[in-house]
Amino acid sequence: MTGNPEFGIRNAEFYHIPQILIMQSDGYTDVWSEGLFKNALESPNYRAFVYAENEQVFGFAVITMIAGESSLENIAVDARYRNKGIGTALLNKAIEETEKDCEFITLEVRKSNKNAIRLYEKFGFETVGERKNYYSKPVENGLLMTKYFKGEELYVKVEKYGVKGSRSTGTCL
After folding, report:
1. Is 15 annotated as catalytic?
2. Low-confidence ranges of the chain (pLDDT < 70)
3. Are residues 158 and 83 in the same domain?
4. Number of domains making up the chain
5. Catalytic, out of 46, 108, 135, 155
6. Which end of the chain is less enclosed by CB atoms within 10 A, N or C?
């Protein structure tokens, strides 16, 4: 990685997919297929970004945005370039893209992935639930984490006491 002006975050393109697939196969067990990435790039509800220099991809993130809600669907950094701020930059981009139009962003993370959990907490994500056996290879629980952009205090209390609510309408169901 150099000071090249073609270095940084940009929209993912179809020609990035082969590098993303290779990156996923190096240390990630729950990986997306080529078809899933192609669908994400074609869908108006998805946004995908890469952290790259020229044509070399160092990391990527995929988010969805539907009806005022967003989700970080996938994020990864090439193992050779971890702990260099790439994941932080991609997460920051995902939040910037979603906070203006969405009320919150959610994600799932392996319960054992302490580094990722610390990063998400640093950005204001809170654990709001746990999904039993959510991940495979190996089977592991997933933590559901959420960062609220609007109406945070009300909905943290609503979730704490187990009342299901609709953030879109502000009413309890």
Report:
1. no
2. 1-6, 151-173
3. no
4. 2
5. 108
6. C
